[in-house]
Amino acid sequence: MQPEIELKLDILPEWTDALLEWPGLPPDNRVESLHATYFDTPDRLLAARGFSLRIRRSGRRRVQTVKASGKGGAGLFARDEWDMPVRGNVPVLDDRNPIAALLGDAVTAIAPIFTVEVERRIWLVNEGDATIELVLDIGMIHAEGRKDPVCEIELELKAGDPSALFALARRIDSDIPVRPGVLTKSERGYRLRDALPGAFKAEPVMCDPATDIGSAFVQVMAACLRQYRLNEALLLRHYRGEALHQARVAVRRLRSALTLFKPVLGKADRMRFRGELRWLGHLLGEARDLDVLLEQRAPGDPHRVTLEQAQADAHARVLDWLGSARVRMLMIDLVEWLASGPVRRKAGAAAAHLAARRLRRYRRRIAKRGRRLDRLTDEARHAVRKDAKTLRYGAAFFGSLFDRKRQRRRRKTFVAALERMQAELGALNDLVSAPRTLARYGLVDAPSPVERDALLAAAAKAQADFADCKGFWSDCKGF
User: Fold this and answer.
1) 282: CATH
2) How do residues 136-184 score in pLDDT, each as one tens digit?
3) Residues in domain CYTH (predicted)?
4) The domain containing residue 185 runs over which residues?
5) Is 30 helix (H, G, I), strand (E, B) or coil?
C-alpha cells in the first residue's frame, strides 16, 4: 500500500492542444494507451463501502488496483492504494488487498461494470523544490451502452510540499482554463450507468461522532464544493435552471459553513472567502430570481417580454462569470485552503462540542427574533429566514455527530418543523421580493394584501411550532 496525493483538474477538450504546446511543460513525455475495466457486485457493494477495483491494461502489461475513497473529495485526493500485476482480466482477491475481507461471501459476485479507455501523456515537472507528475488523460468511459468523454489533468506529488500542486495549477490556468475536478473516473463510470441528472442536490455529510473540528470542517466544506462544481459543470455544458439553483444552494452552504465554524477560523481567511462567495451568490441569485419570477407569470402577462430579455441577459452574465479566472481561482484557492489545515483554534477538539454550541445559538436566535413574526418588518423577517437557513444547513452538516437513537428521533422532528417554517418564510419572501425584482427593470406590481396576510399567519404558526421543538444535540460542554 502506498499513499497518493493528487490534484485533479478539469479541462475543456478545446484547450488540450494549447496544453500540449504550453511552454511550462518539459519537452520529454511518454504516451500510453490505457484500457481499464472496473469491477463491482451487481448491487455495488464496493462503491457503497468506499472502494474501487480495476484492472488496467497498457500494452501487454496488466495491473490490478484497489483504491479507498479519497479523503476530501474537493479536487485534492489523498487515497490508500493497492497495486499488483495480474495475468488476465479476472481480479485476484486475496490477502494482498482488502476486498475479500471487505465483501466476505459476496466477493464471488464481483463482475465487470464499466470500462475506461484513454490516451495518457505524462510529464515530470519541477515546481520549485517539488517534483510533480503531470498527467493528461483524453478518452472515453463506456457503461450500459452510454459513453462520456474524459478530458482531465492529474497533478501527482512525487516529492516536496503539496502547495506546489496549486502553484503549478495556477501557472497552467494563467494560459489554459482549468477547474478543480471532484469526480474520479470510477465515480463517473458509476454515474454513467444511471441517467444523467439535470442537477446535483447536496449529498449527506457523514462525520463520525468522534470527529475533531478540523476534520469536520474540511469534510463539510469539501461536500459543499463538490455540489457546486458538479452543478457548475452542468451549467457550462448547457444552461439548466435547476442546476443554477443547486449551484446557488451550494454557495449558500459554503457561506453557512464559514459562519458556523467562525469561532475556530482565522478572521482574514474567513472574511476573504465569505466576500467572494457572497459576490458569487449574488450573481447566481439575480438569474435565479428571474427564473422563479417567470415561472409564476402567466403566458399573457404584459411584463413577460421584458422579464424574458432580462432573464436572457442574466443567464449570459452567469455563464461569462463562471468562465472567468476570478471564479476558477476562487475554487482552486478554496481547495488549497482546505488542504492547508484551515482550522486555527481547537482543531483537535471534538466537533460535537462546537456543533452543539452553534446549533443552540441559532435555535435561540430564531425563537427570540421570530416572536410575533406577523408584526416584524420585511427586513427583520428576512433576517429570521437567513438564520433558519443557516440552522437547517447546520443540522445537515452536524446531524451525524449526534447519532444515538433518541437524538435521531428528535432530529427528524426538529428538521421537519424547521423545513415547514422555511417553506412558509420562503413563500412570503417570494411575494415581497417580486415587486422589488420587477422595479429593477422599470416594472410595477404589488402583492395581494389577502395573500400576504395568509402567508404571514402561516409563517407565524410554523415559527411557533418550531420554537416548541427540542434540540437534537447532546448537552455538550467544554468548548
Assistant:
1) 1.40.20.10
2) 999 999 998 999 999 999 999 999 999 999 999 999 999 999 999 999 8
3) 2-196
4) 2-196
5) strand
Q: Tell me if 472 is assigned to some domain.
A: no
**Are residues 425 and 339 part of one domain?**
yes
- Given a cut of 80, whether residue 126 has pLDDT beyond it is yes
d(CA 183, CA 229): 10
Q: What share of the chain is helix, strand, coil (3-state, %, to 5)?
A: 55, 20, 25
Contacts of 221 (CB under 8 A, 6+ apart): 74, 254, 257, 334, 338
Strongest mean pLDDT among 75-89, 318-332, 428-442: 318-332
The three cell numbers of residue 298 are 402567466
Instruction: State mean pLDDT over 91-98.
Output: 92
Instruction: Please report, as a single letter, which amino acid is at residue 354.
Output: L
Within a domain: 440: yes
- Does any domain span residue 477? no
Residues 241 and 383 in one domain: yes
Q: Which of 270, 225, 271 has its CA nearest to residue 251?
A: 225
The pTM for the full model equals 0.91
Cβ atoms < 10 Å from Cβ of 417: 18
Q: Which residue has the higher pLDDT, 69 or 407?
A: 407
Rounded distance between C-alpha atoms, residue 30 and residue 100, angstroms: 35
Q: In this structure, what C-alpha cell is assigned to residue 44?
A: 455495488
State the total domains in the chain. 2
